[in-house]
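WARN no homologs supplied; continuing
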Amino acid sequence: MKLISGFLIVIVIGLGLLSCFDPPEYPLTPEIEYQNLVFVDVPDASEPDSLLLFIKFRDGDGNLGLQPNETGCYLAGQDTICFNEKNYFFSLKDGHYLNYKDKRTNPNFSDLPDYVKPFDCINWEIVYENNLPKDTVYFELNEDHYNIFVDFLVKQPDGSFEEFDWREEFCTTYDGRFPILAKEKDLSSATPLEGTLRYAMLSTGFKFQFSIKTLKLRVQIQDRLLNKSNVIETPEFQFK
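OK structure emitted
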């Protein structure tokens, strides 16, 4: 089974703000609402299928979105907000990256997780030099790297739902990014936004992994000040 963690993001802005109208007053924390969910089954098994999620959104200050390769930090009041994917740590003694040797030899780091699944994906990274393994360094994922969060929930025999952990099973995630939505380059002067977000999740293995199981998605978005929206769930569905 092949999973593809690159997502097609398409934004449709549904609100036209004209100078002769007062802009609507929305909360500064984004709000979302489920609109639709479509599964596109591609006949060619070598090509990925698509699970298309449509959600309505609105936001009072329009500060939604991240650039695809945005990894820097900026000040927001007294807070520093960073969008990098991983946080690394350095030894105060000589400045080297905290690594697996430190875990084995330094009692201060003995409680770090072992290099086993899923920690070999979410906490340890092999560094290569000249195509050969050089070191295994420790990191922690930055949850603010993404601005849309999608959980797959699988229905159990008793009717309850349990999350299918993509990182634990396949070292990937269906969390992702949608781009900056405001037309203004200076987001401090952005206006309220309302519209529809179309978010496509791609994989050649959806049907293989879940067969006739019943699922639903749990979804949330986040603005550039790290304000999280309400959490929504889709209706139940199957990959047919």
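Residues 16-20 have pLDDT under 50 and may be disordered.
OK
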